[in-house]
TrEMBL record, chain A:
Family: Belongs to the binding-protein-dependent transport system permease family.
Protein name: ABC transporter permease
SUPFAM superfamilies listed in its UniProt record: MetI-like
Keyword annotations from UniProtKB, A to Z: Cell membrane, Membrane, Transmembrane, Transmembrane helix, Transport
Length: 337, 586
């Protein structure tokens, strides 16, 4: 088990390096292939009608005149050993892991990422509870009552959930529940858990439900399909023949086996969400990693993009590792090696 | 203290008189009780020429939101109209736009200074005298040295890349000047100096007439040298205005509270009505409009108007439309006709484009008259001081004239038309629609357009504003738009028609390369007589139109919504949006 974990961690680390190189290349190499000079790249980060001198100074300050490999090396060095930031009136030490400073705001990236992490965690955890409980329950009931009105209704709703984009359901729900009925707070009303837990839950209620609606649909359909397959297996018939209670047959023997693909999906979904629920956070103006990511991309703010990409990738990698470890717990047939 | 209170009362009374005077000329009813607001009847354009819902009531919290992030809260590093407007709540500059509605909003009046600038040496030296009793939020006195230092620090574009460069270019900086951070002991008195505690003197390289407009920009907001933290100053700006920062979370928002060291006796222009101003940034733009409509926020800080999604909801609803103002702003949407790309290097071919364009279709592409703007016939928009409307390429019903276009093509040696490429910003649906309208109209005379869309964030740096790219790829036409930095000819046109501003990349002047235009710009810039200067800028406008290197599309309009419960709402022409220093809440 220990060797397996070490191997996976090394593999994850290598993958993060590749991701960082690819992201770096997209931002620095591709524009150069298209003929962009260092000054042309720097002119994205100056005010309008900036003079050539200003653009040149900014290109120098951001290091665009250096070869790409030097720029990448500087980035990696910042991650490992930290870096220094000249803010004009002095020099600031940026401790490792230093993802650099925003090209736009001049703020250090890493503290900003950490600051936004609790918002994304809050959103992901609440929504995950709702979609797992809701989606799996509906899926199980639908499978057990196949062809019933409940089955048709729930699967129809699930199809709608999968089909409707979150920026649509999100905006509609805000207009109806926040602005017309006044039941939920408007967008951008996030309250930190440490400030007021009740207000925290209230402020996230609509984003949780909207996000869970999207994911629960997939989980309900997947659970239903898994349960239908599992409940037809010989060992289920054997369990019933042995006189086990139906609840025990369904939960212990049916659902447990059907859970394996759901667990895989959950790991990836949850990891992705922690990396940033971009559409949900943008729609509801939640200051989390998703909003951070979209703003960074929109502004072509390279240090911020690198930071959020690597953090998001790390969460996906960690989540998939945890899922793989849990396989052995959920399904006794799986052995890690 | 009593004197201060009495002076404050007098200042408030003066402001009420100003507001009342502003509100006297229009047709909208004024509230009977102007002390509290709330009695005004909403009406379309009620805030354009008078103050809507005037009030002197102090207190309450103004809630505002911004659909993106501030470039910087540092007065030396910001370059957005909303920031210049909003910043006056926590900074003061040598001059400012006259608060309130109507054409007078385009004029500058003293703010920190006792009077407007006194030019000497034929306009190469400008002197400003500061008022007495000015204080920073920590109680220290604001002196001329703080203003000169603020200008000196803003020179450093390595530290402050976002702010305007006007003073970098206009003032006579020492050749070896490296900025106040690299060389703290540098003497830059050849550019700006404090000759005593209350006198700031600017020394320019060349005579320049619009200095009073330039010094209303925030580069002249005083900065205390001992509190200056360079690029980090934006995190804790020291206030010289009626409000100071209580909190500031960059990328999320901030809160302003009253600055008890601000003396209203020195500032008759800011009523400072709300006790507190809460600002949230990076709010979803469509949701921001919904919040504004519902009353959850009262102010959209960006001030460029409602988004397309909200327009469809607001314009058909009389009650919602009555909460809006629809000003023509000093912004032109246009097409650059680029003379570097054959056969557009021939002025007759450029004129063929002018004649062939369907102006009505172009206006429709921009959203029509209310949401888009008025059909533009020349470069300077109507709100610019001294603007004259003329039309060198008038066509029946503004639909284009095929015959005249074909005559121009024949004169150009391209009787069967030609092919060229038109660029637009692909993340701007209106520019895409404009390009398609141009494609259809020009096809009628044989000019075949290939349309290419590019991301807005790199449009000027990598594509339409990149000289090499334009030449290599044969870009003939480019969708473009420009708003004024201040409402005179220089403030609007210099950046987009002066050929000497053109560099390798990041250009905003994409097409005007005419020596006669440059000469006229120099002449206009140095002319101290207001009327003569305005006339010269009209001459520049005419010369550009004769050159046919800009095809005007619309003089832009915005649809601004007055937030629920706002008092003292007035569209200010100088700011091109609501005047934020006047606002209060019921």
């Amino acid at each position: 088990m220990f060797t397996y974990i070490i191997k996976r961690v090394i593999g994850a680390f290598a993958m993060l390096i590749v991701i960082s190189m690819v992201t770096f290349g997209i931002f620095y190499v591709v524009p150069q292939w298209a003929g962009a000079s260092p000054e042309a790249m720097a002119s994205r980060y100056v005010g309008r009608a900036a003079t050539p001198e200003t653009v040149h100074l900014v290109a120098e300050r951001l290091g665009f005149n250096d070869p790409v490999i030097v720029q990448y090396g500087r980035f990696v060095k910042g991650l490992v050993a930290g870096a220094e930031y000249d803010y004009g009136a002095g020099v600031e030490q940026c401790p490792a892991p230093c993802f650099g400073y925003s090209f736009i705001s001049g703020q250090p990236v890493w503290p900003d990422l950490l600051d936004r992490l609790p918002v994304t965690f809050s959103l992901a955890i609440g929504a995950a509870v709702l979609w797992v409980v809701g989606g799996v329950s509906v899926g199980v009931i639908s499978a057990l009552r196949r062809g019933s009105f409940f089955d048709r209704l729930s699967m129809g709703t699930a199809l709608a959930g999968v089909s409707l984009p979150i920026f649509f359901t999100g905006m509609i729900s805000l207009v109806v529940f926040s602005y017309a009925l006044g039941w939920t707070p408007p967008g951008g009303a996030y309250t930190d858990f440490s400030v007021n837990p009740a207000q925290w839950a209230y402020s996230l209620l609509l984003p949780w439900i909207t996000l869970a609606f999207l994911f629960a649909a997939t989980y309900a359909r997947l659970t239903r399909a898994g349960m239908l397959e599992t409940m037809g297996e010989d060992y289920i018939r054997t369990a019933r023949a042995k006189g086990l209670h139906e609840r025990e047959v369904v939960v212990k023997h049916g659902l447990r086996a059907a859970l394996t693909p759901i667990l895989t999906l959950f790991g990836i979904d949850f990891g992705l969400l922690i990396g940033g629920a971009i559409l949900t956070e943008t729609t509801y103006t939640l200051p989390g990693l998703g909003q951070f990511a979209i703003l960074a991309i929109r502004n072509q703010d390279m240090p911020q993009v690198m930071g959020v990409v690597l953090v998001a990738a790390m969460f996906v990698v960690v989540a998939s590792l945890i899922v793989d470890l849990l396989y052995a717990v959920v399904d006794p047939r799986v052995r890690l090696s | 203290m009593r004197r201060k209170t009495a002076l404050a009362g007098a200042a408030t009374a003066a402001l009420v008189l100003v507001l009342s005077a502003c509100g006297g000329g229009g047709g909208t009813q004024q509230p009977a009780d102007s002390s509290s607001g709330g009695a005004a009847q909403p009406a379309f354009n009620a805030g354009l020429n008078e103050v809507y819902n005037p009030s002197t009531k102090k207190g309450g919290t103004l809630k505002a939101a911004h659909s993106a992030d501030w470039d910087s809260l540092d007065p030396g590093d910001t370059y957005y109209g909303y920031s210049f407007n909003f910043g006056r709540l926590y900074w003061r500059t040598l001059t400012m736009y006259k608060p309130g509605p109507g054409p007078e909003g385009n004029t500058v009046i003293p703010d920190l200074a006792e009077g407007l600038g006194e030019p000497s040496d034929g306009g190469k030296t400008w002197t400003y005298k500061l008022k007495s009793g000015l204080k920073f939020e920590d109680g220290t006195e604001i002196t001329a040295k703080d203003v000169a230092y603020a200008v000196g620090r803003s020179w450093d574009k390595k530290t402050f890349p976002h702010g305007p460069s006007y003073l970098n270019e206009l003032l006579d900086w020492p050749k070896d000047f490296k900025g106040v951070y690299e060389d703290p002991d540098a003497d830059y008195s050849s550019a700006v100096e404090a000759t005593d505690d209350s006198t700031v003197v600017f020394h320019l390289k060349e005579p320049f007439a619009s200095m009073d407009y330039v010094v209303q920009m925030p580069m002249t907001a005083p900065v205390p040298k001992d509190k200056d933290t360079g690029a980090k100053y934006k995190e804790k700006v020291v206030s010289s205005g009626p409000y100071k920062f209580e909190t500031n979370e960059i990328g999320k928002g901030f809160t302003l509270v009253r600055n008890d060291q601000w003396d209203p006796a020195t500032d008759p222009n800011r009523p400072a009505l709300p006790d507190r101003i809460e600002v949230q940034v990076n709010v979803n733009a469509d949701d921001l409009d919904n919040q504004l409509i519902a009353g959850d926020i009262q102010l959209d800080i960006v001030g460029t108007g409602l988004q397309a999604a909200a327009l469809g909801k607001v314009l058909p609803d009389p009650a919602l439309k009555a909460r809006t103002d629809n000003p023509t702003i000093p912004r032109l949407w246009y097409v650059s006709v680029i003379p570097d790309t054959p056969p557009l290097d021939n002025v007759e071919c450029r004129k063929a484009v002018m004649w062939a364009a369907d102006r009505v279709a172009n206006q429709t592409a921009y959203g029509g008259e209310l949401a888009g703007g008025e059909i533009a016939t020349n470069v300077l928009p109507p709100p610019i001081v001294g603007q004259e409307k003329f039309d060198l390429y008038a066509t029946p019903g503004n639909k284009g004239d095929v015959n005249k276009a074909k005559q121009a093509l024949a004169a150009c040696g391209q009787p069967n038309g030609f092919s060229t490429t038109m660029t637009y910003r692909s993340d701007r649906p209106r520019e895409k629609a404009l390009a398609e309208a141009m494609e259809q109209a020009l096809a009628k005379v044989g000019i075949k357009l290939t349309l290419k869309g590019f991301p807005g964030s790199s449009y000027f740096s990598d594509y339409a504003g990149n000289v090499n790219y334009v030449k290599k790829n044969g870009i003939g036409l480019a969708a473009h738009g420009w708003g004024s930095d201040w409402p005179d000819g220089y403030g609007f046109m210099q950046a987009i028609v002066d050929s000497r501003t053109i560099r390798d990349a990041g250009n905003y002047n994409l097409s005007v390369k005419n020596d006669e235009v440059d000469k006229l710009i120099d002449q206009a810039s140095a002319e101290l007589d207001d009327a003569a200067r305005a006339k010269l800028w009209v001459d520049v406008d005419k010369k550009v139109m004769e050159d046919a290197s800009i095809l005007p599309v619309v003089w832009a309009k915005s649809l601004l919504m007055r937030g629920k419960g706002l008092t003292n709402v007035a569209y200010n022409e100088g700011q091109s949006m609501f005047d934020y220093i006047l606002l209060g809440v019921e």
